[in-house]
Specification:
324 residues
């Protein structure tokens, strides 16, 4: 059994770290705890995205048999993963968030299904909250009708009430834990580095689907996902947790920018125009509300100003001039 880079391993696991060393140590341990007992060998790569807080040394000390790589700066999630993906030699590769922890049987189940169904290109486990309840699992491309539906009806739980032993065809797989084939990686390419944070996994899944690969959610394979530990933006329905910041200006900006890139790549111009218009109207209303709140509650003026500045920056984006 090995956990370091070796051409004989069954799969590779890639984890990107940004100042979450303690979580990464637990995520790596979750792979080690289950891979060996389930008869699998894994090459584990941890890519440090310029943490600058001693993360690399801490992780190496805890897991000296794991390949810890320096990205050379905060490259973003897509580019950080690509640092390791360029070195993959194993037939399968899993992207695992630093705050996601594999549960017993998940690795074995995913690999077995990939082995048995060569048409499946991307596969992922059921995503659970730490208390064992289903976590929000976005099911489809974030079209305008889909975003409105989610705003009205809230989180989605596609595995809930479904036959636990029957995989579910999906349009996208949750980015906190997804497995793909080296052959898919070779066919559709690496993650698109124009996505600094958010939607790079959606884009990757769409590219795989367009290339003819099936995507499956596997209800009887489980991963625990904390959510928002790097970005500060937790899963839907859990944003009130004390560990998750309610407002992160950088991530708010990157989310909107990534959504525009996604639409430029996969939707028509009129859909992008509608997205831009609705986004600007929504942000304008939110900015006015923040300003009015600051008048009534002077103690919120600092936060209101932060919001207004980032909303103005987003409204200044011209998505039609983005290079795609």
């Amino acid at each position: 059994m090995t956990f370091e880079k070796s051409g004989a391993a069954d799969l590779s696991v890639v984890i990107v770290n940004y100042r979450t060393a303690d979580l990464v140590i637990k995520a790596v341990q979750s792979v080690k705890d289950h891979a060996g007992p389930e008869g699998l060998s894994a090459d584990i790569y941890v890519v440090d995205n310029g943490s600058g807080d001693g993360s690399m040394e801490t992780i190496r000390s805890a897991h000296p048999d794991v390949s810890v790589m320096d990205a050379g700066g905060n490259l973003g999630f897509a580019a950080g993963n690509n640092v390791a993906l360029r070195r993959i030699k194993t037939p399968y590769v899993m992207l695992l968030n630093s705050d996601a922890f594999l549960q017993a049987g998940a690795l074995r189940r995913l690999v077995d299904l990939m082995e048995a169904h060569p048409q499946v290109g991307v596969i992922g486990p059921r995503v659970l909250n730490p208390d064992g309840t289903d976590q929000d699992y976005p099911c489809a491309f974030p079209s305008i009708p889909e975003m409105i539906r989610r705003a009205i009806r809230g989180p989605q739980f596609p595995a809930k009430g479904h036959d636990p032993h029957a995989p579910i065809p999906m349009e996208r797989i949750h980015g906190c834990c997804l497995m793909t084939r080296k052959s898919v990686l070779d066919a559709v390419g690496l993650l698109d580095e124009r996505f600094w944070m958010y939607d790079e996994d959606v884009d990757w899944c769409l590219r795989a689907g367009k290339a003819g690969w099936a995507l499956w959610l596997v209800p009887d394979a489980h991963v625990i996902h904390l959510g928002g530990q790097t970005s500060g933006r937790g899963p839907s329905g859990r944003r009130a947790e004390k560990t998750v910041s309610k407002f992160n200006p950088l991530m708010t900006y990157e989310l909107r920018k990534s959504r525009y890139i996604l639409y430029r790549k996969h939707r028509k111009g009129w859909e992008l125009a509608m997205l831009k218009g609705l986004t600007d109207l929504t942000l304008l209303a939110a900015g006015v509300a923040a300003g009015l709140r600051a008048i009534v509650r002077p103690e919120t003026r600092g936060q209101a100003w932060d919001r207004i500045k980032v909303y103005a920056a987003i409204m200044g984006i011209n998505p039609f001039r983005m290079r795609v």
